[in-house]
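We both want to read discrete structure tokens more fluently, so let's practise on a single case. Would you write everything just below, so we can both look at the same thing?
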Amino acid sequence: MTIVANDLRTKGVGIFKEALKDADEVFISVRGESEFVVMRTEMYEKLKSYELDVAYMESMKDIKNGDFKSQSAAEHLKELKDAL
């Protein structure tokens, strides 16, 4: 579902409660372009959890493929400073 930004100004945030009864997310359109997404907190937390799961799987894949390096904290800090 999409809500036009002007409707948000005139009807207030209560418009989201009604819109989210029938949809998982509501897009806010500004000048004809979808610019923002509103969703229930539970859905947001679920998506963030998925994001962490994917990052973990990618890290495990890198470790399995040997695509990492091992160094001390001092070596890492030196590498970061040298990169600047």
Summary: Residues 2-39 form one domain.
